[in-house]
Amino acid sequence: MSVENGHEQIKENVDPCEIVPERNEIEWLKEEILKFTTVVSNPSVRLHLQAYSLLCKVIKQAEKLPEPFFKGIVKIVVTASAFRYSHKQSFKAVENLLNALAKHDSGATGRSLAQSVQTLFPLTPNIR
């Protein structure tokens, strides 16, 4: 076993969140969002919890999040919560994710949440 193989093996065992400096943060966020969106619509609660947990880690480690990131994630989460989730654990994971987003930018999170709910339920025009 060569040193290079050992180094590669160590990299494989490392959480992807821990090797961020080697990559462009925006590209990293895009990759994680794509992974998240594929798992969020899966009926497995265990997979939901893992996806939300990983995305929370990504959000906590990111230095700056672009506003479109907030809009996209909140819209996905609100839609999934309204139509797909029925377990308490899934709703708790949504709450944790929204809290992580709000710690970065509470204004953008609040605006995105209000817009998503208003879009989802058009009969409530007074939400702003």
From TrEMBL:
Organism domain of life? Eukaryota
Provide the protein name: Uncharacterized protein
Taxonomic lineage is: Eukaryota, Metazoa, Ecdysozoa, Nematoda, Chromadorea
